[in-house]
Write a structure and sequence with these properties.
This protein is α+β, with helices and mostly antiparallel strands. It has 17 helices and 29 strands. Strands 18-19-20-21-25 form a five-stranded mixed beta sheet, with no helix packed on it. A hairpin with a 4-residue loop joins β28 and β29. α8 runs antiparallel to α10. It is elongated and about 105 Å long. Pathway: Protein modification; protein ubiquitination. Its main location: nucleus. This is Anaphase-promoting complex subunit 4.
């Protein structure tokens, strides 16, 4: 007979894999390895699509992976930096990241399928902001920051972060009872308290009514850890489920806001890059000139002399003609002008439209907060949002101020270059075009301004870039430091400014955005982010407090000796059956040296129980080597098990018979063959004060004979499996964590399937 499941790829990997997760929508599998890399592989031949090496900022120790339900974003958690990174599936770059308080041990990202008329109408009305707000201009790709992140065709990929409007939730579990729920993977809607131990598995029912958690509780004295199951019940998760439309709407707003903040941050980084470009040009061309000067007069004086008397000292002349050259000057002028104008463009099109969109969403949020009966109980607070709006206003003011500074700098720049160009043409006794020769008094003032401003010796700047040549006027705005501006804008004689100063009432007015004349653009941006973050924190605490545990049961103990295997693979495994609202837990208990798989079924509504709440499964003889009747039928240990879909569990088995070449088997276990209602009397009454493994002998056991849904894994010490029932694929990993095989699970034709079903019913 043909072996079931078709093998489509096999690889020996250089690093030990510590985690695998199949994409929900495409035949892609994400892996994390011991070195801290995150890799994406295709199903076909297990071909590598990309890899994201560990780096200082993000971290080196990946401890959890999860895909967004639409498969466009991969999230992973890092233990060493306690950060969560959201990464684009198309390119190995972080689109968004945030920090958490404790290191993450488990992640689960699910879609909320709950339907209601209110929600549907909200999902359909999502585009309202698109009608009112102009489309955000795509970020320019010619900067290294953005080039890394965005692929060629479209750079509005930052909008990918928003994803689908349907609510999805990323649930993070970590050490010492840390559990947080993030709507759309970005906005924290709940911090759950009251669970003990470090999280080993999590699962939230798709209507958000019930949360199941498996934790590992370890006493300091005890070398063994206890695995415990918690379930937080429906009655107590009231806020999330009963205010679902409100929570969704609020979360969506916050997701828009986070995306915009990320957009503004990237625009600013591009501006800084354009600025570095200017400094490098200036430094390379002019610094040499200043360093090689021997005379005592300052550069500024030498240029002033040239400006006033039209005659340059021999030294200046030699340097200008030999080092800078007419051609070089032209080039320098052009490159600086283009950098300036690209900074200007970024301010006008990106920063301004980004912050206007921010204002729009924050104002909508404030409107929600004022609708107290709906949103007050969720912890949305109007005064906090008011502060955020003010902070965005200040940021817009600062951006406008930068525009004016650039304007005046550019005027002086152009005048200086034009004047120097003419002067150099004269020195080389070239023909000077008459229109270049005209120089008005105004132009001369511009040049003089430029010289005093840019060539003044500023010893305190010597250790910075642009040392002999002071171009701080614009640069100071782009510095990411808390220092005040070196040369703040001159507000003397500004009538509006004086009017505000003398008017006591207007000073306090909520209608006027505060203005920080001494601060840089970066400083104001950071302040804005801080205030907005403050706003985002509140609802999570309020909603989290409404979640309480209803059930807590201790399953079994594990010894520490097992701990060489990575945390991420070990059972228990949690699954939520959406259609019938049941949580399943898969785990193994060792009994007479056979590792038996146990299935725990619980209804998401804790007040209702499910028959056969817990069962053990043993596998009858598959390989038929010893056909004699008296052979012990329990000859397989279960190494790993995962839900393939709502009806099937995929398992990796190992022969227990002491013999050469113990075979490993990959098999599909249909739940229908486990949950048959043959003997309702054998109910297992479980007193939750005892640990389950202490009474494992009394748990009803089903013996299952697999028909043709299995395959021997030759020449492979298979140990772990990761499956995806939607795409019908599985990936088996060996016990040394380096050998991988991928299978397509569903390859029979229809005839066989019907026979199989008949066999099951018989």
């Amino acid at each position: 007979a043909m072996p079931a499941f078709r093998q489509v790829g096999e690889k020996q990997l250089p690093q030990e894999v510590v985690f695998m997760a199949w994409s929900p929508k495409r035949d892609l599998i994400a892996l994390a390895n011991r070195a801290g890399e995150v890799l994406l592989h295709r199903l076909a031949n297990f071909q590598r699509v990309w890899s994201l090496p560990p780096n200082e900022n993000t971290g080196k120790e990946v401890t959890a992976l999860a895909w967004r339900p639409d498969g466009k974003i991969l999230a992973f958690g890092l233990a060493d930096t306690k950060r969560i990174i959201l990464c684009d599936v198309e390119k190995p770059e972080s689109l968004h990241s945030f920090s958490v308080d404790l290191s993450i041990t488990y992640m689960h990202w699910m879609e909320v399928t709950e339907e209601s008329s209110v929600l549907t109408s909200f999902y359909n009305a999502e585009d309202e902001s698109n009608l009112l707000l102009p489309k955000l201009p795509a970020l320019p790709k010619n900067y290294s920051t953005t080039a890394k992140i965005f692929s060629e065709e479209k750079s509005d990929e930052i909008m990918k972060l928003l994803g689908d409007v349907r609510l999805n939730a990323l649930i993070l579990g970590g050490s010492s009872g840390f559990i947080e729920i993030y709507a759309y993977g970005m906005f924290k809607i709940a911090t759950v308290t009251g669970v003990a131990g470090s999280c080993r598995g999590l699962c939230l029912s798709s209507d958000l009514k019930s949360l199941s958690v498996i934790t590992e509780i370890r006493d300091s004295s005890d070398s063994e850890a206890e695995i415990t199951y918690f379930q937080a019940s429906k009655e107590l998760n009231i806020l999330l489920s009963s205010y679902l439309p409100e929570v969704t709407r609020m979360a969506r707003k916050f997701t828009h806001i986070s995306t915009l903040l990320q957009y503004i941050k990237l625009s600013l980084t591009c501006m800084c890059e354009a600025w570095e470009e200017i400094l490098m040009q200036m430094d390379s061309r002019l610094t040499k000139f200043v360093q090689e000067k021997n005379t005592t007069t300052s550069v500024q004086d030498e240029f002033m002399q040239l400006l006033l008397w039209g005659k340059a000292s021999l030294e200046l002349q030699a340097l200008l003609m030999n080092q800078l050259t007419v051609k070089g000057l032209k080039k320098l002028g052009q490159s600086i002008e283009s950098s300036y104008s690209s900074i200007q463009k970024l301010v006008i099109s990106h920063l301004q439209s980004g912050s206007e969109a921010l204002l729009y969403h924050l104002s909508e949020l404030k409107g929600m907060a004022l609708w107290k009966q709906k949103y007050e109980s969720l912890g949305l607070d109007a005064s906090g949002i008011e502060e955020a709006i003010t902070a965005v206003g200040s940021f817009i003011l600062k951006a406008n101020e930068l525009l004016q500074v650039i304007d005046s700098s550019m005027k002086n720049f152009k005048a200086f270059f034009r004047w120097l160009y003419v002067a150099m043409l004269r020195m080389s006794e070239d023909h000077v075009l008459p229109e270049l020769n005209k120089m008005t008094q105004k132009d001369i003032t511009f040049v003089a301004d430029f010289l005093t401003e840019h060539f003044n010796e500023a010893p305190e700047l010597y250790n910075r870039k642009g040392k002999y040549f002071n171009v701080e006027r614009v640069g100071q705005y782009l510095k990411d430091e808390d220092d005040d501006l070196v040369s703040p804008p001159n507000t003397e004689g500004n009538q509006w400014f004086n009017f505000l100063k003398n008017s006591t009432h207007l000073k306090e007015s909520p209608l006027l955005f505060p203005y920080y004349p001494e601060k840089s653009l970066h400083f104001v941006k950071r302040q804005m982010e801080g205030v907005i973050d403050q706003c985002l924190q509140k609802p999570a605490d309020v909603i989290g407090k409404s979640v309480h545990q209803a059930v807590c049961m201790s399953l079994y103990k594990i010894s520490q000796s097992e701990d060489s295997t990575p945390q991420l693979f070990k059972l228990p495994f949690l699954w939520n059956d959406k259609t019938s609202n049941i949580h399943y837990v898969l785990f193994t208990i060792l009994e007479n040296s056979v590792s038996k798989i146990h299935i725990l079924r619980r209804h998401t509504d804790t007040s209702r129980s499910v028959s056969n709440g817990i069962l053990a499964v043993e596998f009858g003889n598959i390989l038929n080597n010893s056909m004699s009747e008296n052979s012990d039928s329990r000859c397989y240990s279960c190494l790993d098990a995962h839900f393939y879909d709502d009806e099937t569990v995929t398992v990796v088995l190992k022969e227990n018979v002491e013999q050469e070449g113990k075979e490993r088997v990959l098999a599909q276990l249909p739940l229908s063959s486990v949950y048959t209602d043959e003997d309702p009397d054998r109910k297992f009454i479980w007193d939750s004060t005892e640990r389950l493994d202490e009474r494992s002998g009394e748990i009803p056991t089903r013996t299952v004979f697999l028909e043709n849904q299995w395959r021997v894994l030759e020449n492979m010490k298979a140990q772990y499996v990761s499956v995806n029932g939607i795409r019908k694929v599985s990936c088996v990993l060996s016990s040394n964590l380096r050998h991988v095989r991928v299978f397509e699970m569903d390859v029979e034709d229809d005839g066989e399937v019907e026979e199989e079903e008949e066999e099951e019913t018989t």
